[in-house]
Each structure stands twice: as C-alpha cells, then as structure tokens.
Amino acid sequence: MPALFAGAAMMNAAMAAASAVSTLAAADELGPAWGAVPNTAGIVGTGIGAVALTRVMNRWGRRTGLILGYVSAAAGAVIAATAVAAGHLGDLTFGMLLLGIGNAGAQLSRYAAAELYPAGRRGFAIGVVIWAGTIGAVGGPLLLAPSSRVVVGLGGAAFVGPFVFASLAAVAAVVAASGMPAGTARAAGSRLPLRALLGTHATRSALAVMATAQVVMVAVMTAAPVDMHLHGHGLGAVGTVLSAHTLGMFALSPLTGRLLDRFGSQPVMLGGLLTLAVAAGLAATMSQPSSRMVALFLLGYAWNLCFIGGSGRLASELPASERARVEGTVDAAIWTIAAVGSLSSTVILSAGGYPVLAAAAGALTVIPAILLAGRHRRAVTASD
To answer: How is domain 2-180+193-383 classified at the architecture level of CATH?
Structure first.
C-alpha cells in the first residue's frame, strides 16, 4: 500500500502539471480551438496504457506493469519539455501520449489495492489510493508558477518548467513502484467471452457512470485554463483553480470509500451524477477565479463519487478470474471516450464560450442518472 500510494501521488503530480501547461502551449501556438490536442493525446495514452499495462500485469505481475508505465511517463515528460523549448507541438503531443501511459498505471493501482482487502473493505482501499492523488494533483498545479520561474531564471522558456517537474515526479513514481513486492502473474481464468462480461449490468452501469463523469470533468476542466488565460489570468490563478478542482477529485476519497462500503455502489454513483450536474451548472454561471474554484471543486468531488462507485462495483461484482480483463477494458473505454470530450471542449469554448460548454457537459448526466435511479427504485421495490 505505501508503494501504491506514493506511486499514484507522484504520477498524479506529473500529469496534473503537464496537462494544464500542454493546453496553454498549444492554445498559444494554434489558437484556443486546438488547445486540447496535446492533452487529448495524454488521455488517449491512458486508454492505450490501460489495455497494455493490464496485459503486462497479468503476465509479469503488478509491479512490472507499474514500473513500465511510470518509466514511459518520465520519458514522455522529457520529450515534452524539449518540444516546448523548441516549439515542436508534434513532439509535445507524443510526449503527452507517453505520459498518459504512466497515468494508466496510476489509475490501475486502485484495483491492485482492492485485491489486498476483503470485499467489505475494498471501497476503503480504492479510496485510499485515489486519495493519494491529493498530494500530487493539488501540489502539481501549485508548482506551475514556481517551476516556471526557476527555468526562466536559468534562461529557459516558462512552459518548460512544469514538464521538468513532471519528469522528476515520474522518476519518483518509478522508485516508489520498485519498492513493491515482485508479485506473481495471475492464474489463468475461465476465459469467458469478453463481450459477455461487458454485457452484465455491473459492467454496463459502471462504464456508463464513470465514462459520463470522465467526459464532463475532462471537458469542463480542460477548457478552464484556456478560458482563464484568454481573460488575462496568470499561471498562479490558473494553478490555484486547478488545485481546488483536484482537491475535490481526491481529498475526500477515504470518505467516499467508506460510503461505498456502507451503502453500496448504486447510491454513491447516483449521488455522483447529481453532484456532477450541479457543478456543471455552477461552472456555467461563475466566471471569477474565486467563484470558479467552488464550481470546479464540486466537479472534482462529483467525479470522485462516480469513479470510486463504479470502480467498487467492478472490484466486487465480477468473477475474480476475469476481473482484470474487464477492469482494463473499461478503463480503456472510459479514457477513449474522454479523449473525444477533451478534444471537443476547446472547440466548443471557441465557438460558444465557457458557459455553453459547461451547460452542454452537464446535460450529459441526465440520461445515466434517470436510468440508474430507475434501476435503484426497482431494486428497492423488489426488496420490499
């Protein structure tokens, strides 16, 4: 658990810093409509990594998969730093793709934690590892301005600093993962058809809720730095707002895990969708940095409820021998769908403004919330 905790914290720090600055660098070079391109590559990399690293973990153990992912992230951060200095957006996009593979390792570590605990405490285990992201994901944005000042003082470009920090954080994640026990490959399962596993209610509901939360969160969050940048706010203000958002994403994870263990996944996921709609509505109406902090904090916690609730459902309601295949496939699907949301976010921002983007994102929660509430109501009626 300490190794999983530290690795997730460092990788979240690297990804949070790199994602924000990659969006700003691309927006300055290509215009606001294309600012999300490098960040979208990072999301695509997370989807690719979810499948690839799951296969590595199944064959050679969790530690090997995590180390491979974090090494990829360190290399990607170095490539991105060099690309920003030279003004090569193609290389920046490739660097973000490699960073995304490392992010997939950090995401998959929540399932490794769940395996260490009995079914009644898996929500707590998942919550603890996601909570580790508080340290990194809050600290990463806060270090945007200081890391930039250090690099500028050495004669470099301001946007290079956060990528240098990201590379150091990814190396620290490698060191942390290296401290894990070697582990063993998974025993071969029954190899049920993946289509059948993905067709179960547990998988479909978890996928729908987590994908919706990821798309809404990524769309609203990705466009926020660009919108603030266009309105003259500096990296310090951007970093503060993003830190509030990531605080909401991670800080209350142990509480969410306890709620999951106490009430089950259905109420937690439903609460997450409702909170997501409220947060998107607030983001559409609040424009000042101080007020936007509130909206993005709620957006982050809404994602947290959906993500932990969905992860807990997969960790508890699937056959143990088949769990890893489904977890990796679901994560890949979530991040692939989120890539569309990321790429679309700055296009919608450029065409209609931030309020339109936030309102449209919030509207996506309506259908899964209605379906989940209906299922919950039928289950309660049947139990009565």
So the answer is: Up-down Bundle (1.20)
